[in-house]
Amino acid sequence: MGFKCGLVGLPNVGKSTLFTALSNLPVERAKYPFSTVEPNKGVIPVRDERLYKVAVLAGLEKITPATLTIVDIAGLIKGASKGEGLGNRFLAHIREMDLLLHVIRGFKATDVPHLAGEPDPQRDIEIINLELILADIAFLEKRREKILRNAKSNTPEAQLEKNLVEKIYAHLNNGKTARTLLLSAEEKAIAEGWELLTMKPEIYVVNLDENELGGKDPETVLSISQIAKETQTPVIGICASLEEELGEMEEDERKAFMDEYGLPETGLDRLIKLGYDYLGLITFFTIKGKEARAWAVERGVNARKAAGKIHSDMERGFIAAEVIGWEELLNAGSLTTAKEKGIVRLEGRDYTIKDGEVILFRFKV
Ligand SMILES: Nc1nc2c(ncn2[C@@H]2O[C@H](COP(=O)(O)OP(=O)(O)OP(=O)(O)O)[C@@H](O)[C@H]2O)c(=O)[nH]1
Ligand SMILES: [Mg+2]
User: Fold this and answer.
1) Among 98, 279, 106, which Cα is nearest to 200's?
2) For residue 106, what are the β-bridge partners?
3) Is the CB of 30 under 6 A from ligand 1?
4) Which atom from ligand 1 is nearest to the alpha carbon of 20?
5) May I ask the CATH architecture of the domain 300-363?
6) Is the pTM of this model over 0.70?
7) Which one of 93, 161, 220, 259 is least enclosed by Cβ atoms within 10 Å?
8) pLDDT tens digit string along 189-242?
């Protein structure tokens, strides 16, 4: 399934529009709130020039980029954690995500109603954050009981868990998201297992009006950046409806359009890159048969685990990895020459994969 990015936010902020732009899947988008009920799932290819260069060098036609999974979730409103709107069923979908793309309405469009009257980014962010905090409190309350019962055993682990649950619980009850609480590595490892919604990494995606793009950051983005500074949340401004139009254009037309608007990159490319980096992902490449392929893995992963990303048999039967950096490979001219020159390294299971390496796994089944 890969790494999952979930679109969250108030109704009518353009989540489904952004989803369609990212995934090319035409889903329901409408001027009325709660047009999305069941989550939509799609795949986003991660554009990577290096993969194309490696494929061209190896004379391969089939190029398979790394992907991220994107999930378009129903709009949340005040009281969602108590079942208002489409209710807390949707909070469960958020729990499965690796990264939250919190979409905030910047565009005005008077014909698209905003549930709280006018868009007000700060208030809108607070509404969503509060619902997620309340959902975490409810979730932790159940856990807490069990943990407090266990803590009677007095082992160091049980005590650590008890202190941690109390600490996070108090923090949430102060109206703060769990991700803003400073934790030790040990505490973090435990808390991550609880899958709290407000502990997940999050990016603020401001859905702007078309005419606010290019040039300086508009007022909405600046004011949100101010709010985001405290929590070190990255902020990105895009225009979902424009991104969708760009996706429908031919390459030449798109380029001309973007030049005119002074846009060096599409908003989607910027967003995907930001998400990829923020998730701490790196890419390795494989060449097999007629296919060059990119794979996304978490930074720090070892060769054996990386092999498992391709197939569990490869992880189980891992023998060794033949490794070369993509640039070294390009400089050598071909894999055969690189091997002759002895610059393809043979690495064992504990080798830490680095970004941009071309890898051939040896394994037995
Ligand atoms: N002007 C303008 N309109 C937009 C933009 N993005 C979305 N819209 C419009 O806003 C309305 C709501 O968009 P959706 O993508 O359905 O919003 P949503 O967040 O998925 O809404 P729910 O599923 O109801 O929560 C639609 O009519 C879109 O065409 C934008 O960037 N600019
Ligand atoms: Mg929708």
Assistant:
1) 98
2) none
3) yes
4) 15
5) Roll (3.10)
6) yes
7) 259
8) 999 988 899 999 999 999 998 878 777 778 888 889 988 988 889 999 999 999
Q: How far is the CA of 235 from the centre of ligand 2 (A)?
A: 21
**Nearest residue CA, atom 30 of ligand 1?**
241
Q: How does pLDDT run across 11-60, given as a tens digit for each residue? A: 889 999 999 988 888 777 777 777 777 788 999 889 899 999 999 988 88
Q: What is the mean pLDDT of the chain?
A: 89
CA of 175 to the centre of ligand 1 (A): 29
Which has the higher per-residue pLDDT, 83 or 24?
24
Task: Tell me which CATH homologous superfamily contains domain 4-277.
Answer: P-loop containing nucleotide triphosphate hydrolases (3.40.50.300)
For the Cβ of 275 lying below 6 angstroms from any atom of ligand 1, the answer is no
Cα–ligand 2 centroid distance for 75 (angstroms): 7
Question: Cα–Cα distance between 275 and 202 in angstroms, integer?
Answer: 9
Distance 10 CA to ligand 2 centre (A): 10
Ligand 1 centroid, distance to 24 Cα (angstroms): 16
Q: What is the pLDDT of residue 4?
A: 94
Ligand 1: centre distance to CA 121 (Å): 16
User: With b meaning 16 or more CB within 10 Å and e meaning fewer, what string describes 306-343?
Assistant: bbbbbeeebbeebebbbbbbbebbbebeebeebeeeee
d(Cα 97, Cα 85) in Å, to the nearest integer?
21
Q: Which ligand is nearest to the CA of 240?
A: 1
The answer to whether the beta carbons of residues 329 and 308 sit under 8 Å apart is no
Give the CA dihedral 324, 328, 334, 339, nearest 10 degrees. -50
Testing ligand 1's pocket by substitution, the residue of 8, 12, 76, 114 carrying the most ligand atoms inside 8 A of its CB is: 12
pLDDT confidence bin for 87, thresholds 50/70/90: low
Using pLDDT thresholds of 50, 70 and 90, give the confidence band for residue 344. very high
Parse the chain into domains and list their residue ranges: 4-277, 300-363
For the Cβ of 256 lying below 6 angstroms from any atom of ligand 1, the answer is no
Ligand 1 and 75: CB distance under 6 A: yes
- Sign of the dihedral through C-alpha 281, 50, 321, 58: positive
